[in-house]
């Protein structure tokens, strides 16, 4: 029997399959955008990893005694001559490995600071964290006369103490990025004053050793120290990967993050502790390599250009900066100069800092 005239035509309720189809159609652009974003990031990571391998190979082959590619490959698989084994495994590979590890540590630390505090100036070498490590290490060397191992421990402790002081001074029912950075810059100046006082009161030879450490260098790398650093990073970096999801939520704002079930202040504190630990470890082993933490993440984010955290690209950029800086300091300077890598990283980072300050002030975001 047909429906009567004038009867209203009601829309048929959607079936479960129809609802699923509609939701899938609505989510399709998001899925496509995510696929494109991940594909671009994978390409950037692949290119950066290839560059790291190239720089590593050149670093192992070039020096006072050059090795060819077949010689290097034969040595790496245990078929090299005695002299080649000594050059690769005792001299060049430890230095390269240490440069890679500290490059990752500094870069990830800087990325965490800048993302959590939402400030491009928030870097451990700008806000005094590595300065605290330097002051403690120099105090150990010049006043207490401790050895290299104790100096590393003191550097780690100094970074932790300074970071805790900055956090407590910046606390006002929570931590705001600009206040944390401003207090950190002030603390950095105080630390520089303490360093100047310690150096001015020290014996000339001891002061020279301290100044060499303060520049930052990966020379003198030894396998036992590298193993210790690698073990710490093997614990810290997976922890950072676990916390990365919370960091993405914090980027949306504390209110949104809390609505999504993330405890904003507790997550921020955990991420800052990880960032301080990474910077303190790297500084304890090689000294304060200037600007590696500061420039790595911004370069990586510009290369990826997807708005993601880009932690892996930032780590690879950090590795490239440290390895290229060390190779340049060893082999590419005129007059056969052999300088610490920290001089090269400082030369790279200082112009970037000036450019950043100029552009941030021009758009009204200066710290």
Order of helices and strands: HHHHHHHHHHHHH
Terminal CA distance? 77 Å
Largest sheet: none
Q: Using DSSP, what is the number of strands?
A: 0
Helix content: over 70%
Averaging pLDDT over every residue, what do you get?
Answer: 84
Strand content: under 5%
Number of H- or I-type helical stretches = 13
Gyration radius from CA atoms, angstroms = 25 Å
Which residues form runs of ≥5 with pLDDT under 50? 1-9
Class by helix and strand content? mainly alpha
Give the overall form: globular
Description of the molecule:
By secondary structure, the protein is an all-alpha fold. The chain is built from 13 helices and no strands. It has helices at 16-61, 69-76, 82-117, 129-144, 148-170, 177-200, 204-215, 223-251, 254-259, 264-286, 292-304, 311-332, 341-362. The longest helix is centred in the first third of the chain and has 46 residues, at 16-61. It is globular. The protein starts with 15 loop residues before the first helix and ends in a 5-residue tail after the last helix. Mean pLDDT is 84; it is low at 1-9.
